[in-house]
Amino acid sequence: MTSTPFQRARSDEQRAVRRQAILDTAAAMLVEMPVAQVSLNELSRRVGLAKSNVLRYFESREAVLLELLDVASREWLEQLDPAFAAAVADAGTGYRGDRLVAALAATLTARPVLCDLVSAQAAVLERNVSPAVAAEYKRAAIGNAETLGRLIGSYVPELGEGDAMRFAAVTIMVTGAVWTHSHPTPAMLAVYETDPTLAAMRLDFTAALRQTLEVLLSGLLARAAGQPGGGLGRGGEADHL
């Protein structure tokens, strides 16, 4: 699909509209295809601009996608508070950790574009941007991680502020890693289908993310409680039965 070519933007308002059109078009492409397939040429074609004109607003394809990653992250964070509240409602102390992790995994599973962008962040999206764009993105990313940490800490206060922030940061990194490994290439899928002994290596994103975060949260809680094992979450449920 192509759009009618824009006339030259002559005001700040027109430039803002054009910039948003580029972001909206790239966001629509991400619904159709993975990050790796989003090209600057196709983005330019769909938005109805020459590639050189797109580059007047964003210095690279990666700069566009980093901004979309920030937007997607903030949209996700806006939905987390009610999701956490529903997940831990009426939960005993020994169950809040696991229920919060389940909510995290479920909300991320529901946002495949965000997960795909997170998986590409360090290895791809941060590789073709200027220091100015990188700094702007990192400031936004730190702010988003701090928001996630505060939310987590408000529902699992036993963590303490420091560990809530650590858990938030690792959640983002683990999400990207698990997404990559749970979305193998066509060649790997073919191998898994033909060789049952290798199919065990195939990961389910939601289950793998949830299990990994459960272990991490249980360990942090056990350390916070000064215990060699147990604590809150699945590892410590027996203490509260």
UniProtKB/TrEMBL annotation:
InterPro entries: Homeodomain-like_sf, HTH_TetR, TetR_C_34. Residues 16-76 form the HTH tetR-type domain. Keywords: DNA-binding. Residues 39-58 bind DNA. Pfam families: TetR_C_34, TetR_N. It comes from the Bacteria. This is TetR family transcriptional regulator. It comes from Streptacidiphilus alkalitolerans.
